[in-house]
Input
Amino acid sequence: MLKRETFKVAIVGLGKVGVTTAYALLLRGLATELVLFSRELAKAEGEKADLEHGAPFYPHTTITATDKFEDLVGTDLVIFTAGAGQKPGQTRLDLTKGNCAIVEKIIPKIVREAPQTLVLMVANPLDIMTLRATELAKLAPGRVFGSGTLLDTARFRLHLSKAIKISAKSIHAYILGEHGDSSFASVSSASIGGKPLLSFPEMSPDHIKWAVEETRKDAYKIISGKGATHYGIASALTHIVETIMRDGQKVVPLSSVLTGQYGLNNIALSLPCILGRNGIERVIDLPLSQGETAALAASASALRSHLDEM
Output
């Protein structure tokens, strides 16, 4: 029997997103060691005990509960979910000041103990958190990135699939830009089975516009109804973790600090990226239409304006 390759994952922040992600990773066997990090040790220990009671039903994983950064030594991937979540009526950008302060306090301590790790940012506002974490971590390019518009893309594909009655897995269309209200759909390159999305009679510009608007409203609807979103993002994070663990080299829409793509620099936005064991290997130069390029620039402008106000 082959020895299972080690893959140590730490989740920093044990709110609903962090704990749901831990549960999803354990069910899939996507970590050989899982570190649950919280500033409240009793919280971390309680979550550990609850999760361990399912151990007979998932692949063996060593779980550590801690409030000490020293326990992050040897970590392959840190999933950063620490910070306040959206409340009804708030936008993601409303969380900037408080969550930036948390990132500034914690990221240097993570990298001090685990300089070899990848850092996956999840806390909102996602793109600003990714930019700040990248600046603070000072790791090699591609090793700090955000979950980006992966969940937005999944929501968009789901809305399209219901109209066309084709599995969302077979629809290749991305939501790009900000993980927030200025996101946009890259329709010009979208396809199903190699055919352009708009060549299907069920698809029209109006229907696609509706699907984009529904995608933007989804989080607000869920937060209004139940207070928080966590199952969808945990599923998206599980996909990211599996891609990294297996060195999948898959194309995933992730947030990273741009270095000249579409004329943009020093701002984090989501574009399709090739993801593997070393993080983001390459950002794909997707052919965007003139309108889509303008929408990407508008996303960057919206984020810059918010940063300037801080």
